[in-house]
Every structure is written in C-alpha cells, then in structure tokens.
Amino acid sequence: MAAKNRFPRNVTCKTAHGLAYAVYGSQYKHKQAGNLRLTDIARTINTQDWELAKDIVSTLNAFMASKDLELLEDHFVRFQSNRTLTSVQQQYMSKALNLTKDVWDKMVDIKDRSVSMTHDGYLKLYQMSQPDLSQRFGAILLDEGQDVNPVIANLVQIQTITQVTVGDRHQQLYR
Question: Cα separation of 132 and 147, whole Å?
Fold first, then answer.
C-alpha cells in the first residue's frame, strides 16, 4: 500500500477489505475465492437453469455491495426496471430470493465448502456487524471517496469519529 509510506507512524493505513479481513476474512481462508462461479452456484442449488444461477449471483453481488443489512427484493437485479411484475415474474423472483438466501447462508457457514467466501462477502459481514472503529482510531480519512460503493460508505457513515472524505465527484464510478 503506497499510502503507508506517505504518512507519519501515528497513522494506520488500511483498506475497508483489510479491516474486514482481520475480523472475518481470515476465518474463511480455506474457502476464499475472488468471485462466485456460476457452476458452483448451480451445483449448490442443484439446477441446470443457468439464468437462475446467474440471477442468484447478481442478486448476491448487489446485496453484498449495498448498505442493507438483509437481502431484499431491491437486490434482485433482473426486474429492477419493472414497476409492476406479472404473477409469474413475482413467483420467479421469490424463488430466486429464497435460493439466494440459502446460498448466502452456505457462504457464511465456515464449515460449508459448497459456496466460496468472496472478498465482498467478508466485507459485507464486517459491515453487518456494525463495528465501532472509535475503539481503535481517532479519525477516518477515506481516499477516493467518490468511488466507494454503498457498503463501504455505510461502514464509514455509522462511525462516531471524525470522518474526512477525499475525492473528485466528477470521476465517480458508482452513481
């Protein structure tokens, strides 16, 4: 991390994932992966319906990037632009959400190797735990603040210590 060498010794430089890894990620070393694989999800839910597996992965990714503490219909990406759903679409979404919850439960189960733990997964667990960083730090400096996703933004916003966000709103990745 380049920033570490640019600050005095009384400054601790960490990424959000680095903070989360120390608490949760290290527990999942034996089942970590960079991304969820469609084949693993399809095998876990015992299906050859690749669209369903894809919907589960995209729903889980949307949940892990969100500030929400529970999986919601809002995380189901496929129908987000639809204002009203047909009964068939509603049933499909309900089924997909239930399966996504099952996959999430397997992901966070340390003993269950059927679903890998991703970096965004342990970051989500950390955010959901609502950590109090005031026990370790006097302030937070969030660099590239325009590029943080909602889960990281929430992790910072819930803190009671001084927060400084640095960034360029004209270079925003997440809108």
Answer: 23
Tokens of 96: 């997909």
What SS3 class is residue 136?
coil
At 78-105, the pLDDT tens digits run 988 877 889 999 999 999 999 999 999 9
10 burial (CB, 10 Å; 0-12 / 13-18 / 19+) is exposed
Q: Dihedral of CA 114/117/118/121: which sign?
A: positive
pTM: 0.89
Structure tokens at 163: 């927060």
Tell how far CA 8 is from the center of its chain. Answer: 31
The residues facing 117 across adjacent strands are 32
Domain boundaries, the chain: 12-171
Rg (CA), the chain: 18
How far is residue 175's CA from residue 162's CA, in Å, rounded to a whole number? 25
Where is 123: in which H helix or E strand? helix 119-128
Contact call for residues 122 and 25 (beta carbons, < 8 A): yes
Measured between alpha carbons, how far is residue 160 from residues 27, 131, 139 in Å? 27, 11, 9
Q: Which helix (H) or strand (E) holds 20?
A: helix 16-23
